[in-house]
Amino acid sequence: MKYERYHFGANLVLEIISGKWKPSIICSLDARPKRYNELKAYLQRVNGQPIAQKVLTEQLRQLENDLIVKRTDYHTVPPKVVYSLTDDGQRIHDFLIEMSRVGENLAQHLASADQPIAFDYSYQQMIHHQKGELHAKS
Amino acid sequence: MKYERYHFGANLVLEIISGKWKPSIICSLDARPKRYNELKAYLQRVNGQPIAQKVLTEQLRQLENDLIVKRTDYHTVPPKVVYSLTDDGQRIHDFLIEMSRVGENLAQHLASADQPIAFDYSYQQMIHHQKGELHAKS
DNA sequence: CCGAATCCTAAGCGATACTG
DNA sequence: CAGTATCGCTTAGGATTCGG
């Protein structure tokens, strides 16, 4: 990516986190680092929709270039690659939690004028789970 | 727009503000409400790039549906239409300021590993100008 | 196990022309 | 002045196939 000039800092943040799966990726790596296929399966579970391998790789590469995600390749056979959050990635994650709080407030108004809006994970849950992995619904 | 289910509240916020000009529109209407062509000219000035009429109308309609922007039509000839922020729009604007602070911090790291990144308006300026319109660079 | 390469579709954005 | 209507380009995302 080529960074040059922005009207606001907000535009830089948006450029970095805009991508269908990026917010979910960042939040998935918060609890603990994950291997590639582990992350892929996790994303599918929490979002109820499969992510194409090409897309996951693309978005991980971009997040890596933007210093949000760190890629660790163990160079073994068979391969083992682990993805984790950088310090900036952790800050973006914290910001996404705050963003979720704003979103849930907006949803109340939008829902009253339209239809109920459901969130799988509230920002309260996100805060609560910051130090512990979510349990899979077995 | 059809709201249904989201993984996080963050995804709702992103859906609402994602659009090339939406963040700029929201920030432009903060200082004071603006008429259509006034807003159009303002956006072109601060972003150094013209916005297509079709696109501006589209994004304004969407922001109106999402309860971010209020459209006031005076039904006169010639027409006079004024756009302003709703309460939720104001909250989103405040959030964009916070987002700019985060972005400017990220930029320091990205710039050191890449190239310098310039912001036309810092979040400090945004705060300072919340109660007063920006001066045009004459 | 973790990808790369290719092809395809839908949507965002923009240019242009026209209108009450 | 504040829009609509139409068309074309570009890009993000996804399905599929192949490789170290």
Automatic annotation (TrEMBL), chains A, B:
<dbReference type="Pfam" id="PF01638">
    <property type="entry name" value="HxlR"/>
</dbReference>
<keyword id="KW-0805">Transcription regulation</keyword>
<keyword id="KW-0804">Transcription</keyword>
<dbReference type="InterPro" id="IPR002577">
    <property type="entry name" value="HTH_HxlR"/>
</dbReference>
<feature type="domain" description="HTH hxlR-type">
    <location>
        <begin position="8"/>
        <end position="111"/>
    </location>
</feature>
<protein>
    <submittedName>
        <fullName>Helix-turn-helix domain-containing protein</fullName>
    </submittedName>
</protein>
<dbReference type="InterPro" id="IPR036388">
    <property type="entry name" value="WH-like_DNA-bd_sf"/>
</dbReference>
<keyword id="KW-0238">DNA-binding</keyword>
<dbReference type="InterPro" id="IPR036390">
    <property type="entry name" value="WH_DNA-bd_sf"/>
</dbReference>
